[in-house]
Design brief:
The complex is a heterodimer of chains A (330) and B (431).
Chain A: H1 2-23, E1 30-33, H2 38-50, E2 58-60, H3 64-71, E3 82-85, H4 91-99, E4 105-120, E5 127-128, H5 130-137, E6 161-163, H6 169-185, H7 189-197, E7 206-208, H8 213-222, E8 227-231, H9 232-237, E9 242-244, E10 246-247, H10 254-258, E11 265-273, H11 283-290, H12 293-296, H13 301-304, H14 312-324
Parallel strand pairs in A: 1-2, 1-3, 5-10, 6-7, 6-8
Antiparallel strand pairs in A: 3-11, 4-8, 4-9, 4-11
Chain B: H1 3-10, H2 14-54, E1 59-68, H3 71-74, H4 82-87, H5 90-101, H6 108-115, H7 122-132, E2 140-146, H8 149-156, H9 172-184, E3 187-191, H10 194-197, H11 210-241, H12 246-259, H13 263-277, H14 285-310, H15 313-321, H16 326-354, H17 358-362, E4 367-368, H18 383-391, H19 398-427
Antiparallel strand pairs in B: 1-2, 1-3
Classes of the chains: A alpha/beta (330), B mainly alpha (431).
Chain lengths: 330, 431
């Protein structure tokens, strides 16, 4: 009888999918990837959708790593056309792509992002060095209970930090920009290596808060002692509730991120499949729109959302790469 | 029993014993009442927070601008064709008219601040007006356009006003404009129809639930089409035909267990089987509906079996005695009588499916889909997923939208449950 039910279920499924896999063609762009790039990509998608000839691209926020996995799963209408990334594609991912037939990948740098280390706007504004941050967060560090144990100039409050999960590109960037540098600064990098340097302590002082940055903002606003790590756009949109700490004396702002004066800044990317350009309508137009003057020029709409624009020279390079559909070297 | 024997047995005076019993009784009742009061208080608190932060989303602030539809500004001839009107750069038309209306705003950065008071949809409003009525060209008309989300939130009191300029969502100057317009009658609040007619958007003032409502409806339709016939057939077979033995007992226990399986498991099953093995399109109502129907099946089977059990055996015996075949008995007599109970169970199951998020996340119904889906193989989102997506957006305007979305889904749930109660009350027969 269970067999009977299974049979009914399976025949229904087969009957339903048989005609669909045959007739299923796609005229809507599919995008996956980083939750940091997601807010910008959705705005661009909406702009494209307003043009009479194109559907609004569908965007799923899967995290950089998850997006790469889907993106590299093959070519064809069943796979995404673009993936957003808050770090550059890894060589292992390029290999995975190549293995599944995705050989021609277009890389587009869309702008920069700074990672903010923020606390409630009602608490005193702080300044940290990478070394201090590493000491506060690392499993293989001194594991202090309060900030003043690290440095007497810091206040005597408990260390409470909400950090992004390992699947997030923000975490990858934090690891390479802060944890690695801090580890080097205390002279432990040679001894314990890159992997161990990046391990967060697990005694409750550092908490992995999930991909939901809005939640972190709410908790920071409610808890004056807590600090949170997230992309600049969230700080930009919630300036009445939270403030960014200065890092090594540099305030986080559009200008300091653009010049990389702010020490925790990183480029944002998206990747496209050259083989899909011309097959799925609107791919070329989407790429053009993302780097157009309306979007990332002076007073562009993506700047209103907290994207830090590229410098003019890089931008024109990116534009010429797009019109030539230049792919990354294998 | 008499008093004397009682005293001798317990060794206490009867009145003291009775007092103890009465006290225990009172305590028990009070605890029960306390439980009810606590439950009610948390429901009231929950609904209260949702309604108080969500009701404002049903209104939107609008600003009036006098727009001169000047052919020179629009770069068209006096008698333009429809294509020409479609091609006009309406953003430029809007900006130029703003500059004309506020000539005192001269610096580029200030003009930008002025433009930011209005929603990004302003040019689209102008285009729609002109396309609907081409005679507007050459005229001047007062046009109401949506305010930006920041202005909207300040006006509603959802964002604080009395804090330093740097931390506020509007600058001092923008705040002054807002006050000035409110005084001059150039600002008004209108019902937010967009909320029910458009899909999601990255601009909170333009975002709507229509895409999610349609997505949920399509998903539930697929769920209904699959789970109702299968569920009823399974229930009829188990109740009317299956021999009562060890195997049918095991099946019964397993159906009950299936009803308690966490929904994310069904999502994983959908991901592995439907997407990866059958290659169905990711994130579509078709896949969502199949997954949710697996989840609702046990609920429907259990409810349908209960409804079949409630039909008295005399009905079956009577039909069989009159010479009806077992199938005729079931279809002509038992099923019609059990149908109200079955429908009730189905509606309850569907209501559960409507609020389900976890399995939909697994199969990719978790995307930004701005266009309203037109079929079961279009990628779509669903109501609970949309609420989740809004809840994690950085813009503050989504806070009220999240709460408003919850209100909408609650209303749908209440309606479905009312329908179930109505069906039961109206059609159920008791013997």
């Amino acid at each position: 009888m269970t067999l009977g039910r299974k049979l009914i279920g399976m025949t229904t499924a087969i009957a339903l999918c048989a005609p669909i896999t045959v007739t299923y063609a796609r005229d809507t762009i599919q995008i996956v990837g980083s939750s940091t790039v997601y807010p910008f990509a959705t705005v661009v998608a909406e702009k494209l959708g307003k043009q009479p000839n194109f559907n609004t691209p569908v965007i799923e926020s899967t995290g950089t790593g998850g997006g790469m996995k889907l993106f590299c799963s093959g070519l064809g209408v069943g796979t995404p056309d673009f993936t957003n990334a808050s770090r550059a594609i890894k060589s292992s991912e390029v290999e995975l792509c190549a293995k599944n037939g995705v050989t021609e990948i277009i890389e587009i740098i869309v702008g920069n992002d700074g990672i903010a280390f923020s606390n409630s706007a009602n608490s005193p504004k702080m300044n940290f060095t990478k070394e201090q941050l590493w000491k506060a967060m690392a499993e293989h560090g001194p594991k202090p209970k309060t900030w003043n144990e690290i440095d007497a100039s810091l206040p005597n409050v408990a260390i409470k930090i909400m950090a992004p999960p390992p699947t997030s590109g923000t975490r990858d960037a934090w690891n390479s920009l802060v944890m690695k540098a801090g580890c080097k600064a205390v002279g432990k990098y040679e001894e314990i290596g890159k992997k161990k340097c990046a391990v967060f302590r697990e005694d409750g002082a550092v908490e992995e808060a999930g991909e939901n940055d809005t939640l972190i903002v709410k908790r920071l606003a409610a808890d004056p002692e807590a600090f949170g790590i997230f992309g600049f756009s969230f700080l930009d949109q919630n300036g009445d509730q939270i403030q960014g700490s200065t890092i090594e004396g540099v305030e986080i702002s559009l200008d300091t991120i653009q010049t990389y004066e702010y020490p925790i800044a990183r480029p944002l990317f998206f990747y496209g499949k050259k083989a899909h350009v011309g097959v799925i309508p609107g791919m070329q137009e989407y790429m053009n729109e993302f780097v157009s003057d309306d979007a990332v020029g002076d007073y562009g709409y993506l700047m209103d959302r907290g994207l830090v624009p590229l410098e003019t020279k890089t931008l024109s390079e990116v534009r010429s790469n797009i019109s030539a559909l230049k792919t990354i070297d294998q | 029993m008499n008093k004397a024997s009682h005293v001798s047995r317990v060794g206490r005076s009867p009145s003291r014993l009775n007092q103890r019993r009465f006290r225990a009784e009172r305590r028990f009742r009070r605890l029960g009442l306390l439980g009810v009061v606590l439950a009610l208080a948390s429901v009231v608190f929950l609904l209260g927070t949702i309604f108080s932060s969500g009701y404002s989303a049903f209104w939107r602030l609008q600003f009036a601008v006098d727009i001169q539809f000047d052919p020179a500004l629009m770069k068209i001839t006096e008698r333009p064709t429809a294509e020409e009107l479609q091609e006009v750069h309406y953003l430029a038309l809007f900006r130029k008219n703003l500059e004309r209306a506020y000539p005192e705003v001269k610096k580029r950065s200030e003009r930008r601040k002025l433009a930011q008071m209005f929603s990004e949809s302003a040019p689209d409003v102008l285009r729609e007006l002109v396309l609907a009525d081409p005679t507007l060209v050459g005229e001047t008309r007062r046009v109401w356009v949506l305010a930006s989300s920041s202005a909207d939130m300040i006006a509603k009191g959802n964002a604080p006003r009395d804090i330093e300029e740097k931390r506020r969502v509007l600058t001092d100057q923008q705040l002054a404009w807002l006050d000035q317009w409110e005084e001059e009658g150039l600002a008004r609040n209108r019902f937010n129809t967009r909320f029910f007619t458009s899909g999601p958007s990255r601009s909170p003032e333009l975002a709507g639930l229509a895409g999610a409502i349609v997505g949920s409806a399509l998903t539930l339709l697929v769920t209904l089409i699959i789970s109702f016939p299968v569920g009823v057939a399974a229930a009829v077979y188990l109740e009317e035909y299956a021999p009562k033995n060890r195997i049918s007992e095991i099946i019964e226990v397993n159906i009950n267990n299936l009803a308690a399986v966490p929904s994310i498991i069904f999502g994983l099953l959908g991901l592995a089987v439907l997407l990866n093995f059958f290659g169905l399109p990711r994130g579509t109502p078709l896949v969502g509906g199949i997954v949710l129907s697996l989840m609702t099946l046990p609920t429907i089977i259990i409810a349908s079996r209960a409804a079949l059990k409630a039909v008295p055996p005399s009905i079956r015996d009577g039909a069989l005695a009159m010479g009806a075949s077992p199938m005729q008995t079931v279809f002509h007599h038992v099923l019609p009588l059990a149908m109200p109970g079955m429908l009730t169970g189905t509606i309850i199951g569907l209501a559960q499916a409507l609020g389900e998020t976890a399995p939909l996340l697994m199969i990719g119904m978790f995307a930004f889909v701005a266009d309203i889906p037109s079929g079961v193989v279009d990628q779509a989102s669903a109501l609970p997923v949309q609420i989740y997506l809004w809840a994690e957006s950085s813009e503050r305007g989504y806070v009220e939208l999240t709460a408003a979305g919850i209100m909408v889904i609650l209303i749908f749930l209440v309606l479905m449950n009312l329908l179930a109660v109505f069906l039961r009350k109206k059609f159920e027969r008791r013997w």
